[in-house]
Design brief:
The chain is built from 11 helices and no strands. With 173 residues, it is mainly alpha-helical. It folds into 2 domains: 71 residues, UraD-like (Orthogonal Bundle), CATH 1.10.3330.10; 89 residues, UraD-like (Orthogonal Bundle). Helix 2 runs antiparallel to helix 3, helix 4 packs antiparallel against helix 10 and helix 5 packs across helix 10. It is globular and about 50 Å long. The protein starts with a helix and ends with a helix.
Length: 173
């Protein structure tokens, strides 16, 4: 779909199609719908990012809490969103051996205990080794630093998900 088709969508269709560009946060898509028409995909993405940045810190943490644990229960039970399942598989998180699964589960739990929200990283831009290393390293961050880092990762995820849904001018050529 190109940006003009996206701009022509009804509210319901817009939210249904773009509602998971920020994991399990269709309210963000719903909030930016009224800013149509978007001149480009970059303008739409900027509107989403502006909305996120305008949230109080508790709202930003809420966005982070909507993310599943990487290689966690949801992956094992098949209850991830389609997007998260594909992203985690692309990073190799669906092929972890038992020792890696145990390490990931332990680190995820430590992370949530320390920060109060799940570890978020753009899995599509990482592999399982990078994810495990980052999870371990980022446990040493201060909460405010980690919250900001998590929000930046959410924006990377959103960027890639939007690119998968909306054709840019470069794709039309």
């Amino acid at each position: 779909m190109d940006i003009s088709a996206l701009n022509a969508l009804s509210y319901e269709d817009f939210v249904n199609i773009l509602g998971n560009v920020v994991e399990k946060c269709p309210i963000i898509t719903a909030a930016v719908w009224s800013r149509r028409p978007f001149a480009s995909l970059a303008v739409l993405e900027a509107a989403i990012n502006d909305f996120i940045e305008a949230l109080p810190e508790s709202g930003k943490e809420g966005i982070l809490r909507c993310h599943p644990d990487l290689a966690g229960r949801d992956l094992q039970s098949g209850t991830l969103t389609r997007e998260s399942r594909e992203e985690q598989a692309r990073a190799g998180l669906d092929t972890l051996n038992s020792a890696e699964v145990s390490r990931m589960a332990r680190l995820n739990e430590e992370y949530k205990e320390r920060f109060g929200f799940p570890f978020v990283i753009c899995a599509r831009m990482s592999d399982k080794e990078t994810i495990l290393r980052q999870l371990s390293e980022r446990l040493g961050n201060e909460c405010a630093v980690e919250r900001a880092r998590g929000v930046e990762e959410v924006k990377k995820i959103c960027h890639l998900r939007l690119q998968g849904l909306v054709l840019t001018d470069a794709h039309k050529l």
